Amino acid sequence: MISAIVKKNLKALTSKIDQKLFGEKEFVIVSNNCWGAEIYKRLDKEYNTPFIGLFVVGPDYIKLLENFDHYMSQKLQFIDKSRWIDKLIVYPIGQLDDIEIHFVHYKDKEEAELKWTRRLSRMNKFTDRNKYFYKFCDRDFTTPDLINKFHTLPFENKISFGIRPINLNGHIVVAESENGTVLDGVFLYRNAFKYVDLFKWIKTGKMSLNWYGKIKSFAKIA
Predict the structure, then answer these.
(1) Which end of the chain is more exposed for a tag (fewer CB within 10 A), N or C?
(2) What are phi and psi of 71, to 5 degrees?
(3) Which residues contact 212 (CB under 8 A, 6 or more apart)?
(4) For position 1, what pLDDT does the model report?
(5) Is there a contact between 172 and 195 (Cβ–Cβ < 8 Å)?
(6) CA distance 160 to 204
(7) How much is the pTM?
(8) Do 194 and 217 form a contact (C-beta atoms < 8 A)?
(9) Helix pair angle (35-42, 4-22), 10° resolution
(10) How far is residue 44's CA from residue 162's CA, in Å, rounded to a whole number?
(11) Are 181 and 136 in contact (CB under 8 A)?
(12) How far is CA 20 from CA 24, 42, 49, 168, 199, in A?
């Protein structure tokens, strides 16, 4: 077993290596949960996306992507009750038209709105959609049909994760799961390198696997 101190030092070292190998490319990650935040943090990049510290349920996420410019131009409102989750929710719930945004890692509406608005402004500076990378997974009311629909959307850079095989280019089957779906965004990111080099995908648009990524993932230093 790797000690906590050694693991911390290895993670810091490999982060620097990843940043050096990746270079200066800027990009936008659109994700249904906080998976993308881990990539920005690892590469020491500014958040060029508002999809940080939140999740969007599968049906709403696909609806948002199908009419992306419309929804991203809507003023963020806040609601008291989710139509998807029938239990007490203590985090802010935003709404863009009829799409719910679950700000699960924010303490209040003011913080959620401030950071959403600031990061949305950064994203809107990227007019070249080839710099956008879209991710989906089988959590939060997502069905195989929705994953199939995701891969038919007219975007170049798409990746999805699930615990069940789906015969689609860009769909990654992972072994790690909880309650019949992949793990949450942070843990999915950490395990993803066992299956695909996420940084190469963002840098080149191509999906492949390498030993360096697998070692980082198995050692839990990704």
Answers:
(1) N
(2) -65, -35
(3) none
(4) 55
(5) yes
(6) 17
(7) 0.96
(8) yes
(9) 80
(10) 27
(11) no
(12) 9, 11, 22, 32, 11
CA nearest to 56, candidates 43, 45, 65: 65
Domain boundaries of the chain, sorted by first residue: 4-51+117-218
Q: Which helix (H) or strand (E) holds 173?
A: strand 171-173
Residue type (1 letter), 85: I
Residues in the chain: 222
Looking at every residue in the chain, the average pLDDT score rounds to 96
Q: Minimal CA–CA distance to 35: which of 181, 189, 157, 203?
A: 189
Predicted local confidence at residue 3, as pLDDT: 81
In sequence order, the β-bridge partners of residue 181 are 178
pLDDT tens for each residue of 40-77 = 999 999 999 999 999 999 999 999 999 999 999 999 99
DSSP secondary structure, 109-122, as one string: HHHHHHHHHHHHHH
Which two structure tokens, joined as six digits, stand for 13?
């070292």
